[in-house]
Design goal:
It is built from 7 helices and 7 strands. The chain is of the alpha/beta class. Belongs to the short-chain dehydrogenases/reductases (SDR) family.
Length: 272
């Protein structure tokens, strides 16, 4: 994707963000760019025939890149998180362009359901499990070796977006709950595996956040709009993606050095 400030040479800190075209991923790209990071913004940039709602487009990714590039080096990259080779190529681009990789943030996600688990089309279930869980594992497999290639003392950060659905049984969203619970368990194990390496692994667990996934959740539940979910949270409102992105940016930075294997609720109290 040719748009955006590609920068030159080695940046102080380099991040790769999946699901970057909208929602929490887009907000994270913008937040990191504002903080001086060089960012490779990764998204599918196309439609998934298995899912009944619109995915983000390449034009939406380009718009995020253009906004973020006002603050520093940002580049868009089209890749499917289900494709390990494509993610490995994205990591290689970040290393070649900016000299290394310091943070990888798995924010790509989809949702499907709206009927009991045994009635969900298998292709939809596969899409949820493959994007929301396998996509996180794929990013770790591609990105962690790059972060370990940084010289010691290193401070790499692997981050993932889980969900309050990791701990709450949401009816008619069984595959989504399973995938997000898997993300939480994976991050805990990964934090243990990375102990002493200088690379940490953490996740955020958002509540009802004003994103296209929440809009699709409302449709699946037959609700007129996503705002109906606000009453479930003690804060009494939906979260803004930027609020979740702010916590991800903290976890990506040096002040989170004592944290690994943590799943941080950013949920307006939903899990209480």
């Amino acid at each position: 994707m040719p748009r955006g400030n590609t920068g030159g040479g080695m940046s102080a800190r380099v991040a790769l963000v999946t699901g970057a075209a909208r929602g929490i991923g887009a907000a994270t790209v913008l937040k990191l760019a504002e903080q001086g990071w060089s960012v490779l913004a990764v998204d599918l940039g196309g439609q998934d025939p298995a899912l009944p709602y619109a995915m983000a487009t390449a034009d939406e990714l380009a718009a995020v890149v253009d906004r973020a590039a006002a603050h520093g080096p940002v580049r868009g990259h089209l890749a499917d998180v289900r494709d390990l080779a494509a993610l490995t190529a994205a990591v290689a681009e970040a290393e070649q362009r900016w000299g290394g990789l310091d943070a990888a943030i798995a924010a790509a996600g989809v949702i499907a359901g709206g009927v009991p688990m045994w009635e969900v089309p298998v292709a939809q279930e596969d899409a949820v499990l493959d994007v929301d869980l396998r996509g996180v594992l794929n990013l770790a497999r591609a990105a962690i070796p790059a972060m370990l290639r940084r010289p010691e003392p290193r401070s790499g950060r692997f981050l993932a977006v889980a969900s309050a659905a990791a701990t709450r049984g949401l009816p008619m969203l069984a595959a989504y709950c399973a995938a997000k619970a898997g993300v939480a368990g994976f991050v805990r194990a990964l934090g243990s595996e990375l102990g002493g390496s200088g690379v940490t692994a953490n996740a955020v667990s958002p509540g009802s956040t004003d994103t296209p996934i929440l809009a699709e959740s409302a449709r699946l539940y037959g609700l007129p709009d996503a705002e109906r979910f606000a009453a479930q949270q003690p804060l009494g409102r939906l979260l803004d993606p930027a609020e979740v992105a702010a916590v991800l940016a903290f976890l990506a930075g040096p002040d989170s050095s004592a944290m690994t294997g943590a799943v941080v609720p950013v949920d307006g109290g939903l899990a209480l």
